[in-house]
């Protein structure tokens, strides 16, 4: 993937962070290319936030090395901080301050002079769609607006790299959609974006993704590349009653995996064409009504579930 | 510099918009000053007194007149039954009862000694001690006068003055022994302590709680810039409050300001820095505003109130507690304040206290800066 003419924005080698006996980050290796939107996926507690904090220079790694925007994370955190923006899952603006006062404040601590502050501030307002609400107290804005303003304040100094730590958690779907439009805009302007999320639909928006689980890197690649990791076929089965169907299918010898996806079942098999009739028969014999059985493209969620499961089995 | 100013500006806006903090800064000093100044009144002005005068002579009235004119006693009732003393003292309507026996004037004229009974309500120990002292003084003075005139009329040939030792008490620095003169300096110390430690700790921990602190850490701002920017508004407010207290003290309570005000402000800043150090230290060990408040109360307000010599004189504390007071910065500051305000002394008389305060604030600022830095990194 990494071609020579691509510039590397972030690189980590054997990055490890231990808290006592607990290994939060376990020898991570990856590169992020300049200008891409890089997704960091994993369940809660997988080590996503810890990794971001190490990259931002808040935490020192126990082992390994890394660079952000060309600066060493262990030795040059000052230089890194000038060139990055950061926004965390926890809403972090000053609620007692107005929209414009927050923008001014963050402009000020990033060292912008008053002219730049006004110029960049106006742009941030426009991006966040908050024109005309400069004088509203931030505490009175709704969650989606706050999130957009928070992002705006994180990019007021035109950072080379933007870190977003679960930026959309707790925000309604429409606001999330708007928020991702903003992220695209930031990336179009040349910033590299590293975003953590556990929403799979958001993962599809990323240029490249890496999946981490228990501090380890499980997979890395574009969404399309990751989907190829799934060698097996995936079938979606709609049946009635659902739970009885699950029990029957689980016992079939050729079924590798069954997972409940809302009101349907996803089953993993080696060769879909061969087994569809067999499944139909089995369900019929148990008196279960098979409404629909079809071959489907695996989603990222399917892939991550299966990757994590195989990881679990191999670590046992 | 730009960054420091940005932080200060933001902090000012936050203080102004937060009614709780604003109330603490503006109204609490006033309220505390007035409540404490009037409530902790250690003087015994106008002790309520009943008189049981069985003699009702010229002499007895003369003595009663002395009590009245002293300005310390208010005679609420002349009673005519001994049992009434019980009634007045039991109900707390009077604190002191003075009984003049029926043969008082007769004995005096006859050149004999006589006695007067004073009954004092001892349930309030400090009041009764002071009351007994006042009664003693007045009676001794009166008795001396009688002796002198008796000697003279008894044919003793005294020309001019009789060689007696007259006690001329002079209370320096606070001649009227007004306790408000002690309380106003104490209040200044309390207010600086409160603004410095509690507000700083609350403000830093508040940022931790709502996640802005984490965001600040990731900006290029340096920890010293953040700290200076953050404490600057509180320093300004504390000085405004000190000046405000001095003005109220001077013009409302008539507390003298005999020494140099610039010196006072200079040494106040030293005390202020020690409390800010404490506030920052508290902010590094507490996770929530609640716990910060509790710790600040326990480590700053309480010792300042109890152990600085503000309310209880250090000399009358047990030995061990006296040793503890050496670790209370307010002890030194209070000595400085009283020195400058009441005694009008200059720095030369306050060297030891100033030096101790200086060492203490240096130590606090260093410790808190180190801990703060470690927390940031």
Structure in words:
- Chain A is an alpha/beta fold and 316 residues long.
- Chain A folds into two domains: 8-227, P-loop containing nucleotide triphosphate hydrolases (Rossmann fold, 3-Layer(aba) Sandwich), CATH 3.40.50.300; 231-297, Alpha-Beta Plaits.
- Chain A contains eleven helices and 14 strands.
- In chain A, the strands form three sheets. A six-stranded mixed β-sheet of chain A has the order 6-7-8-3-9-10, sandwiched between helices. Chain A has a four-stranded antiparallel β-sheet with strand order 2-1-4-5, with helices on one face. Chain A has a four-stranded antiparallel β-sheet with strand order 12-13-11-14, covered by helices on one side.
- In chain A, α3 crosses α4 (114-128) and α3 packs parallel to α5.
- The longest helix of chain A has 16 residues, at 173-188.
- Chain A is elongated and about 75 Å long.
- The model of chain A has no long low-confidence stretch (mean pLDDT 86).
- With 377 residues, chain B is mostly helical.
- Chain B folds into two domains: 2-40 and 178-376, no CATH class; 47-153, abc type-2 transporter like fold.
- Chain B has helices spanning 2-17, 19-39, 58-69, 83-91, 104-109, 125-153, 180-209, 212-217, 223-251, 261-285, 289-307, 319-325, 329-343, 351-376, and strands at 47-53, 73-78, 96-100, 117-120.
- Chain B is elongated, with a radius of gyration of 28 Å.
- Chain B has 14 helices and four strands.
- In chain B, α7 (180-209) packs antiparallel against α11 (289-307) and α7 (180-209) runs antiparallel to α13.
- A four-stranded mixed β-sheet of chain B has the order 2-1-3-4, with helices on both faces.
- The A-B interface holds A 56-58, 60, 78, 81-82, 84, 86-88, 90-97, 101, 104-111, 113, 137 and B 2-3, 5-7, 9-10, 13-14, 17-18, 210-212, 214-221, 377.
């Amino acid at each position: 993937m990494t071609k020579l003419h691509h510039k590397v924005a972030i690189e980590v080698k054997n990055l490890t962070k231990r808290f006592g006996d607990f290994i939060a980050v376990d020898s991570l290796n990856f590169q992020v290319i300049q200008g891409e939107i890089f997704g960091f996926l994993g369940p809660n507690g997988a080590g996503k936030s810890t990794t971001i904090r190490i990259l931002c220079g808040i935490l020192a790694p126990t082992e390994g090395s890394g660079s952000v925007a060309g600066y060493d994370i262990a030795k040059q955190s000052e230089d890194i901080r000038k060139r990055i923006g950061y926004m965390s899952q926890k809403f972090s603006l000053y609620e007692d301050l107005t929209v414009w006062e927050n923008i001014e404040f963050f402009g000020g601590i990033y060292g912008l002079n008053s002219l730049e502050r006004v110029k960049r501030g106006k742009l941030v307002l426009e991006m966040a769609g908050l024109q005309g609400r400069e004088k509203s107290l931030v505490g009175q804005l709704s969650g989606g607006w706050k999130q957009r303003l928070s992002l705006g304040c994180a990019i007021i100094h035109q950072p080379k790299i933007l870190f977003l730590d679960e930026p959309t958690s707790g925000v309604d779907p429409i606001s999330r959609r708007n928020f991702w439009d903003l992220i695209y805009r930031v990336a179009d302007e040349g910033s590299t974006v590293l975003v953590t999320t556990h929403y799979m639909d958001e993962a599809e928006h990323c240029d490249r993704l890496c999946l981490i689980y228990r501090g380890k890197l499980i997979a890395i690649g574009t969404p399309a590349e990751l989907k190829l990791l799934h060698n097996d076929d995936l079938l979606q089965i709609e049946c009635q009653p659902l739970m009885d169907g699950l029990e029957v299918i689980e016992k079939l010898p050729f079924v590798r995996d069954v997972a409940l996806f809302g009101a349907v079942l996803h089953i993993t098999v080696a060769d879909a064409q061969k087994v569809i009739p067999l499944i139909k028969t089995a369900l019929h014999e148990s008196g279960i009504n098979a409404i629909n059985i079809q071959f489907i493209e695996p989603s990222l969620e399917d892939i991550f579930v299966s990757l994590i499961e195989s990881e679990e089995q191999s670590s046992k | 510099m730009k960054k420091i100013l940005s932080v200060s500006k933001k902090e000012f806006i936050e203080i102004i918009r937060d009614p709780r903090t604003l109330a603490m800064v503006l109204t609490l000093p006033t309220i505390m000053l007035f409540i404490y100044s009037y409530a902790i009144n250690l003087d015994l002005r106008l002790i309520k007194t009943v008189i049981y005068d069985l003699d009702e002579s010229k002499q007895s009235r003369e003595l009663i007149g002395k009590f009245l004119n002293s300005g310390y006693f208010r005679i609420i009732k002349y009673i005519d039954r001994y049992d009434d003393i019980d009634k007045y003292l039991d109900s707390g309507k009077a604190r002191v009862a003075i009984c003049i026996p029926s043969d008082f004037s007769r004995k005096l004229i006859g050149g004999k000694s006589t006695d007067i009974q004073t009954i004092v309500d001892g349930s309030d120990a400090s009041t009764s001690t002071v009351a007994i002292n006042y009664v003693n003084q007045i009676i001794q003075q009166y008795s001396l006068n009688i002796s002198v005139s008796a000697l003279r009329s008894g044919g003793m040939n005294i020309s001019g003055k009789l060689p007696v030792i007259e006690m001329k008490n002079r209370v320096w620095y606070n001649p009227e022994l007004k306790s408000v003169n002690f309380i106003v300096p104490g209040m200044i110390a309390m207010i600086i302590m409160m603004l410095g430690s509690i507000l700083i700790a609350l403000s830093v921990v508040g940022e931790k709680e709502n996640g802005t602190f984490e965001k600040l850490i990731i900006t290029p701002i340096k920890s010293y810039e953040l700290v200076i920017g953050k404490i600057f508004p509180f320093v300004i407010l504390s000085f405004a409050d000190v000046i405000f207290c001095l003005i109220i003290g001077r013009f409302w309570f008539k507390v003298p300001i005999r020494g140099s005000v610039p010196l006072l402000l200079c040494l106040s800043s030293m005390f202020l820095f020690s409390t800010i150090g404490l506030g920052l230290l508290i902010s590094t060990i507490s996770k929530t505003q609640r716990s910060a408040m509790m710790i600040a109360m326990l480590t700053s307000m309480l010792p300042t109130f109890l152990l600085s010599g503000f309310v209880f004189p250090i000399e009358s504390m047990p030995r061990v507690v006296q040793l503890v007071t050496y670790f209370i910065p307010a002890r030194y500051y209070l000595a400085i304040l009283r020195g400058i305000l009441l005694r009008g002394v200059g720095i030369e008389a306050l060297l030891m206290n100033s030096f101790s305060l200086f060492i203490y604030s240096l130590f606090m600022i260093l410790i808190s800066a180190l801990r703060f830095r470690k927390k940031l990194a």
